[in-house]
Amino acid sequence: MVGGDPTRRHTRPPGLAHRDHGHHPGDPDPGGALPRHEPTPTPATWGRGELATRTTGSAHGLDDGTLLSRLVLRGIALARGVESPADAPARRALWRMASVTPDEVSSTVLTYGLRPTGGTWRERALRERADHHMETHLTLRELRALRLEVPPRTRVHVCENPRVVEAAADTGGGTEPLICTSGSATTVVLTLLDALAAAGCTFAYHGDFDWPGIALANRIRHRYAAEPWRMRAADYEYLATRAQLHGTPQIPLTGTPTDAEWDPELTPTMAALGIALHEEAALDLLLEDLGTSVGTHPSGDSP
User: Fold this and answer.
1) pLDDT value, residue 24
2) What is the number of helices (H) and of strands (E) in the chain?
3) Segment 162-190 mean pLDDT
4) Contact 226, 204 (CB under 8 A)
5) Distance between CA atoms of 210 and 212, rounded to whole angstroms?
6) Are the C-beta atoms of residues 111 and 138 closer than 8 Å to each other?
7) pTM for this structure?
8) Per-residue pLDDT tens for 201-210?
9) Which of 5, 83, 176, 261 has its CA 20 to 30 A from that of 283?
10) What is the pLDDT of residues 111-155, one digit of tens each?
């Protein structure tokens, strides 16, 4: 043997296991030596965060706005033969087409006095809460399960700030629904308003007298043909004058002016006075409207 020692016995190097596939009496069960990892079953429906974690390692890997989510949604749209989504509700609908559920429980819409006429326990619970003057937060999951049938031409008041809903619940007045956008209307807010619009409701909107508030009012008006609710130039002048008489500190109106499309006088009036007025400045007037649902406003608009 070239370079070998004929007297050396062939032994295994230390630590090298003997390849013996047989199971000998007294040996430990080889199946119990190491845990067997079965492949994780693929669910019929994925949560988007769950799918993102599995594929990217991060629960936020498929969040709206990421390059990967845009690519995946474009692929789903091509596979389904539909248009690429243009807004958040369309993106959610497209995810669901692929059996992926976006987060439908963390975002809510604040409501008060919502009395759908459906016969399931969900609708009954809403009517009971309304009868007891309790506000209700609804998730997207709940909205998808509700039968939002209401009498035709039901008047729905829409406000921007939660304090209006809180105060309405405190006073226990009003019989018409009140929906809060909680700032810029999110997908869950639009989902509820879309359903109420489809049920034949009409809308009246009030928000902040600042430029973002005017922009939001324009969007709500466009989407739902909402009437202004104490949102005309005369309303703004009245509130500004009242605030000055009460000695209320003034908040300067900043930013780029936005045209109020429902009243050509409102934007010039706001620009001239230069005062931002948040919705709470009109709270007593809004509560009066919600309590009576009739009457004449300084601008001539009925709630």
Assistant:
1) 52
2) 11, 10
3) 92
4) yes
5) 6
6) yes
7) 0.76
8) 999 999 999 9
9) 261
10) 999 999 989 999 999 999 999 999 999 999 999 999 899 998 999
DSSP 255: S
- Per-residue confidence (pLDDT) for residue 277, from 0 to 100: 98
Both structure tokens of 217: 């009012």
% the chain with pLDDT above 90: 63
Please check the confidence at residue 35 and state whether its pLDDT lies above 90: no
Please, which residues bridge with residue 251 across strands?
276
**What domains are there in the chain, each with its CATH number?**
47-101 (no CATH), 108-292 (3.40.1360)
